[in-house]
Amino acid sequence: MSVRLPLRAAARVPRPQNLHCLPSLRARYATSPTEREPQKTLPEAEIFDKTARPGIYYERPKHQRDLPPLQSKWPAIFALGVVGMSAWAVFMVFVTNQEKLSSSVMQQIMNTIRENPELRQVLGEAIRPEPVWWMNGDPWISGAIHMPGGNIDLSFRVKGHKGAGTLYFTSIRREKGKPFEILRFKVIADDGTEVNINPSRPS
Question: Does the model's pTM come out above 0.70?
Answer without folding.
Answer: no
